[in-house]
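Anyone up for a design puzzle?
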């Protein structure tokens, strides 16, 4: 295919010559087709436009991160509330939260306290996040992962749609 929109079946050398006359590159699009399909275009311009499209697509992407909050089995209420508020903010931003309870020394004998803390944490965040599985103990750490709940978006109101006026009497 040529820039003017014409489609022709011709030998490869003739297509190369015609593309060179127009100052373009001959690019093979479907080499396995019978006959092979090629297109005459400015390859540098094509690369530039592709790169620009990829950059625009990347700009609109949101990468989900896993934010980690660490607790101890005997974490104080104020510290717990402070970390819970951070977790709420992370979930509202669309990130996942991993809550970890670290056991040191003899604290490992009280795994039940750590699991209760994680269950309480997950229950407190139930309105903004959903729990992925039960709290698990791995080595000296117990953890639970909480994912954000997809918020139901209200339909956007447009200026063009007429407002419903009360019926005239």
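Challenge accepted. My sequence:
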């Amino acid at each position: 295919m040529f820039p003017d929109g014409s489609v022709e079946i011709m030998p490869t050398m003739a297509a190369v010559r015609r593309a060179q006359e127009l100052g373009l590159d001959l690019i093979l699009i479907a080499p396995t087709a019978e006959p092979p399909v090629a297109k005459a275009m400015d390859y540098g311009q094509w690369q530039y436009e592709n790169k620009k499209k990829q950059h625009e697509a990347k700009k609109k992407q949101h990468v989900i991160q896993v934010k980690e909050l660490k607790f101890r089995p005997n974490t104080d209420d104020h510290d717990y509330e402070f970390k819970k508020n951070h977790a709420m903010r992370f979930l509202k931003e669309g990130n996942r939260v991993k809550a970890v309870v670290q056991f040191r020394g003899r604290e490992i004998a009280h795994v039940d306290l750590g699991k209760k803390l994680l269950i309480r944490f997950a229950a407190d965040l139930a309105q903004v996040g959903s729990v992925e599985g039960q709290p698990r103990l791995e080595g000296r750490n117990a953890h639970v992962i909480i994912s954000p709940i997809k918020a139901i978006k209200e339909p956007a109101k447009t200026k063009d749609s007429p407002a419903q006026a009360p019926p005239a009497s």
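A detail worth pointing out: The chain is about 35% helix and 25% strand.
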